[in-house]
Amino acid sequence: MPANRSKLFRRGIAALAALPLLTLAACGYGSDSKNDDTAKIAAGAKKIDGLDSVKIGYFGNLTHATALVGNQKGFFQKELGATEAKYQIFNAGPSEIEALNSGSIDIGWIGPSPAINGYTKSDGKSLRIIGGSASGGVKLVVDPKKIKSLKDVKGKKIATPQLGNTQDVAFLNWAASQGWKVDAQSGKGDVSVVRTDNKVTPDAFKSGSVDGAWVPEPTASKLVAEGGKVLLDESALWPGKKFVITNIIVRQAFLKEHPKAVEAVLKASVEATKWINANPDQAKAVANKQLAADSGKALPAKVLDPAWKSIQFTDDPLAATLHTEAQHAVKAGLLENPKLDGIYDLTLLNKVLKAEGERTVGDAGLGVK
User: Fold this and answer.
1) Count of CB atoms within 10 A of residue 181's CB?
2) Close Cβ partners of 289 (under 8 Å, ≥ 6 residues apart)
3) CB count in 10 Å sphere of residue 6
4) 179, 205, 323, 362: least surrounded by Cβ within 10 Å?
5) What angle do helix axes 65-72 and 259-278 make, rounded to 10 degrees?
6) What is the rounded distance in angstroms from the CA atom of residue 114 to the CA atom of residue 112?
7) 43 class by beta-carbon count within 10 Å (0-12 exposed, 13-18 middle, 19+ buried)
8) 3-class secondary-structure state, position 239
């Protein structure tokens, strides 16, 4: 690898590693989620693989609604029997990967870029993607007084959640497709990329310190509620309007040692996905209830309703799109050409899907051999 590209890669990884590990509460790597409405451990239930608990991580985002619903409806606890389902809530990918690597969580819902980074930085030893969860739910929202068309984005300040995160990579790739040059590390160039935590972005937008944002739901709909306009839905850039936004990952050691527990969590996830798609309005309310339990605040209807409509819930990890997203990170200079062979192990997911009479899913040639 040329010296300048090697230096850029190392600088990019160092920057990612140095990012603050943001959590909803100072409670280990993430906040604990306690839900009195969740199904209790059934009388006479037995532990799976002799485990006292399975530790599950997810974000307080609607794009993680499979986990939100699985928690609130008690799907995970039901399938785990007398093994307790414990939860930790995150709002930054690096912190969830660190928690996974340390054993603070066993299984997690996470975006594609953190999964790719976690896998490649560990030389393929830290995690496996074992299922899909959601597609879509990402939009470019702008101040319509400042930006009236896509070409007007040039020269403006656009927020993304974090250097090297899934939306940051997507925006940098889109900007490059417009012929604009942006330094990925500094965010400076024909467009100014302002890395801003999703919790802060609505205030930054309202104050005028950013002119728009490329963000996931529900942040995108919060900006619209503040007077923003959706200029572009990222799904329009993908074949079939589908691209992975949330995966399910597991520690490789946990997968090897406790496959029955992993299968139980995947069974619960498939059940949650099926229930969400069969009961969209009820599922929206259930997910919002869990968001309120996790963060102390539910989403208002003017934010919840449009956000929910833009997300598709699926067990398919949409593996081909993850590979494409990895190539976008390479083009942006944030990642060396990654070796993703073996990042997927969909064996247990396909076992569950087949038993449920559902179609099995593929790994785009990136599965365990």
Assistant:
1) 10
2) 37, 72, 298
3) 11
4) 179
5) 100
6) 6
7) exposed
8) helix
